[in-house]
Amino acid sequence: MTVRTRFAPSPTGKLHLGHAMAAWVAKALADAHGGVFLLRHEDIDLTRVREEYYGGIEEDLRWLGLDWQGAPLRQTARIPAYDAALERLKDMEVVYPCFCTRREIHEMGAPQGPEGPIYPGTCRELPAEIRDEKLSSGLSHAWRLDAGKAACRAGRRLTFNDLMHGVAVVDEDLLGDVVLARKDIGTAYHLAVVVDDAFQEITHVTRGEDLLHSTHVHRLLQELLGLPEPVYLHHPLVLDESGKRLAKRHDALAIAAMRDAGVSPEEILPRIQDPAVIRAITASTTSGSV
Ligand code: GLU
To answer: 61, 78, 211, 231: which to mutate for ligand 1, most atoms within 8 A of CB?
Structure first.
């Protein structure tokens, strides 16, 4: 098996140190196995994407020596594939339209989950005739996963293997009924990422620990859509001087700003080459866990 990894930035800002680490992890894992490292622009959120960021990200990656193979994939070219996946989930009746606004959800006092409020399932409970009436009146709506139904439909206990965190049992309640198609853009991260990782034949999904919870949703979607299960590696995040997560506002840590200030790639790479990640990658080459 050829190991295939990817770096999947959103061209909604400049590449900063945190992204550079994600790219390095994906490339290092592919290189350790003589595999392939790919680039995918996750550009479905057209409200935030800016054209100059595609080239900026690519330039910064090359400057750091984190070159990828082949032409980068753009998610905006893949909308029909996400639509088809959503249609399949509709046929399985594991998604439902949600008419609630962000504000309404806030006012419902929804409990906070690890990635924002857990939707209380208001629209899941709508009687069929009211739902149909709202749909046919053209009311704007998102599509949400019915996490409980989806887990039943999957019909078996799902797990995933992470090279740094070990095996986890999927908990469909962790993020609840997540949005799989946003009102404004007709698709959403969780669905697009799963469809594209399969399309690009990614064997190892590497990304920051902040997305560990999302993997529970992704495994469920892979199972429902009959897609292969990748191995995962969720890596630690780069922290700022005060121990907090880097945010996009840390402009000084944008790779381009560092380059302009005369910092060299040789000075940047040691800041992102996490020893625990290196150990996990090395172990994966000898343990047969791949
Ligand atoms: N586009 C996502 C981000 O920038 C990456 C998600 C992933 O690697 O699965 O956070």
So the answer is: 211
